[in-house]
Amino acid sequence: MNWILLIIGGLFETGFALCLGKAQETTGKESYFWWLGFGISLFLSMFLLYKAISVGSQPLPIGTAYAVWTGIGAVGAVFTGILLFNEPVTFWRMFFVFTLIASVVGLKAVSN
Which family does it belong to (predicted)? Predict the structure, then answer.
């Protein structure tokens, strides 16, 4: 269950990166809604990370949990930037994103 909480928290981390990018692109009332989304996503992301490392019969180790949480957020932010903000897709960029994914999967595989 804690791994599910952690994955959902990582997705909310991607959400707060998306909201932050959109808040910088917009003005007026629309900008305030993106800032609100940023705050809500930030809170939920960190709350779920906290729950994953402190709740249940087998809480996750903080080092592994934090690395997986930030890895999900980083990969999600890269793909969100590519899809929504027209950021470049280069060989080396994708190479290192997939290296990051392999590292996150490896950390989960070797954790207790």
Answer: Belongs to the drug/metabolite transporter (DMT) superfamily. Small multidrug resistance (SMR) (TC 2.A.7.1) family. Gdx/SugE subfamily.
**Environment class of residue 26 by beta-carbon count within 10 Å: exposed (0-12), middle (13-18) or buried (19+)?**
middle
CA-based radius of gyration for the chain: 15
Tens of pLDDT, residue by residue over 99-112, are 999 998 888 888 76
Q: Can you give the pLDDT at residue 111?
A: 74
Asked if residues 52 and 6 have their Cβ atoms less than 8 Å apart, the reply is yes
Which pair of structure tokens corresponds to residue 75? 């990969």
Q: Are 36 and 92 in contact (CB under 8 A)?
A: no
Give 64-82 pLDDT, tens digit per residue: 899 999 999 999 999 999 9
Neighbours of 72 (CB within 10 A): 23
Residue 111, both tokens: 């954790």
Helices within 55-90 (DSSP H only)? 62-84
Task: In whole angstroms, give the CA distance from residue 3 to residue 65.
Answer: 8
User: For residue 42, which amino acid is it?
Assistant: L
